Every structure is written in structure tokens, then in C-alpha cells.
Amino acid sequence: MSDSFSAVKLTDRVYWVGAIDWELRDFHGYAVERGSTYNAYLVLADKVTLIDTVKAPFYEQMMARVASVVDPGKISYVVANHAEMDHTGSLPRVIERVKPEKVVASAPGVKAIGQHFRLSQELTAVKNGETLSLGNTSLTFLGTPMVHWPDSMFSYLADERLLFSNDAFGMHLASTERFADELPEWLLDYEGSRYYANIVLPFSTLVLKLLDKVKQLGLAIDIIAPSHGPVWRKNPSWIVNRYADWAGGPLEKKALIVYDSMWHSTELMAAAIADGVQAGGARAKLLSLKGSHRSDVAHEALKAGVLLVGSPTLNNGMLPSVADALTYLKGLKPRVPTGAAFGSYGWSGEACAHIEDVLSEMGLSLLREALRVKYVPNEEALAQCVELGRLTAARLLSPTAGAGA
Length: 405
Ligand code: FEO
Prior knowledge:
The protein is α/β, with parallel strands linked by helices. The chain has two domains: 8-248, Metallo-beta-lactamase, Chain A; 254-397, Rossmann fold. The protein is built from twelve helices and 22 strands. Helix 9 crosses helix 10. It is elongated and about 75 Å long.
């Protein structure tokens, strides 16, 4: 086995033994710009315990890191905090190699892992609040359903005041740095919010409940060790507070204008609407789908107060790029409360009605009926676009807009 991969020490008895995926660029539809990490951790207790594994192709890398601190054969317990294969992909090989005394997961986790793999060993279900003795220390499990899947759970190592939070508080970011305090805050904010918007956003209500639950339990937490991205060892409350804000904090006085165009007419409309928003005293963010990915749209929608979507009509519908972005966004359930459609058309002009249908299905209230322009917008049409922008700004600046959950 390669000796080029080493474990990274978190505390006297806890080591990072994960893998860095420098090449990942797509995570089921989410454009990952800077790769990712799959974080596994080793607890050097009387019962040596491996917390999570890594994506299957990275098994050797993880085992090399384990071997840099302990003989892998000494692993007694494996904890699977989450069934998704970026964390369980190496589990079958770990079980074969290590033959651990016990592999534990939540009850839904045991079921889900059994539906993913044919394992040579039975898994043990642990309950919310249950504690597993590791001999000279212990782990307590906390069910965190839907953060990210129904089976997800946290593991808490009280003696080290360390929370293994799996997908929560993570980000897709490959880096040589293992700790958040070694990275610039703007990058943590950018990649953390991008991950939240593209992965965690649909479960914001549950995130708020989870944050409350952790607060009520009064867990002392010095370190948060997530399953993706850097470990929070200094000021872990920074990321907890960011989660509270992304999940339920006030929305920004920002209109997100997402559009695509055929012959620049819808593009002209978008620019005029943005001018109107700015003139009305609010902020506009334009995303042309020629250069922006659906993940950028989700990221910008995270705190947007109004969503304006523009498309010309193509073959009685909206442009495929607009349909793609809207389909993705609908699944993520952004908190944006208000929206409107706009676009240029030639004869039938159905795109706007289709956009309005999706906005309504997403639960947005419509600011006004769709603004449609025949072929190329003239001065009068552009003035109507500016007016839509001003209406949007007025909505954003109204006292009731953008309240938190
Ligand atoms: Fe990182 Fe839901 O898996």
C-alpha cells in the first residue's frame, strides 16, 4: 500500500483519514468548481473506530492514511453516519479487509446500506441519543433525518467536544488545507453557501429544527468535523451561524434575473429590468444562462427576495436552458417569495405562461402578469421593463419583504 498518504491529526486521539478528489466537477447536477473531499475519521480509542468511509475509487487512499497511524486490522468499530455512496462506497471493502466487530448506522441507515450493497456482515442499528462505548471514551449518536437523507446522523465524541456532522456544515472544496482557519473567509462563505444552496436548501426547515435541538441538548462543541471540506476547529459557531442565516435569516434586497435569449430581445428586456431595479434603490443580479450554470442560479437564489425569469418562446415553450434551470431550482425549494416572468415572442408566445406555472408550483406569488414583448423591444417596451424593475425594487424595499423564517 502507498505510504504517500498520511493521516492528519485533529486531536490526540482523532485523525482525518479521508480522500481529496481534485477532479470532481459534477455532483448529480451541481457544478462543483473546486473538487471535493470525502472525510473519514479515525478515533484511536480502546476500540479503534472509523467514522465513515470514502467514495469507492478512493479506498486505497483512505486505507493508506489509516495505516499511517494504526494497523487497519485494529479497527474494531465502523460508524456509517450516512448511506450515500460518497461515504459508504468503500464500506464493503473495509468490512472485508478489517472484519470489524461492529458496523453501526441509524435504523434507516442499516436498511438503506443493505439496499446498496451485499455486505458480508450484519449492521447494528443505533437509536437517536444512544451511546456506544469505545472503552476509554464513547460516541453518542444524534439522528438528523433529511440532513441529507432520511438515514443521516451525527456522531458526538463528548470527551473531545467533537461533532462528526457528516454532510451538514460541509462544502465541496478540494484543498491541501484541512482546517477552515487555514482558508480565506470569502472562500468558506462562497463554497459553504454554494453547497448549502445546491444540497441542503430543500431541508432548511429541518436545519432550523436541528440547530434548535443541538442548542437544547447543550452539546459542548470545540470542533465540527464534516464529511466534505475543511474541519472547523476554531470558532465552529461561524458555520453554525451561517446555516441559521441561510436556512431562516432575512432575505436580501436583491432581485435575481435569470434569462436566456435567442436574438438579444429577452436580453435587452433583462438589462432594462435590472436598470429599473437599481433605479428603484434595490440590487439586481443578472444571470444569463449562456454563461451561468443551474448551480449558479441556485446559489444566487439562496437569499434573493424576488426571482424574475425570462425566456423567448421556442416551439411553443421556453428555451431548454431556462427549463433546465427552473426544474433544478424547483426541487431545491428556494425561500424566494415573489417572482415574475418576461420574454420576447413572435406569434404564439407560450414561454411566459409556462414559466409562471413553474413559479406558482414553487409557491412564489406573482408580482404581476408576465411582461411579453413582440419580437424586438421598442422604447415603449423597454420603459415597461424599467417599470417592472421599479415595481420589483418597491417590493424588495417594502417592510414585509425578506423576513426570515
Ligand atoms: Fe455527502 Fe449525502 O452525501
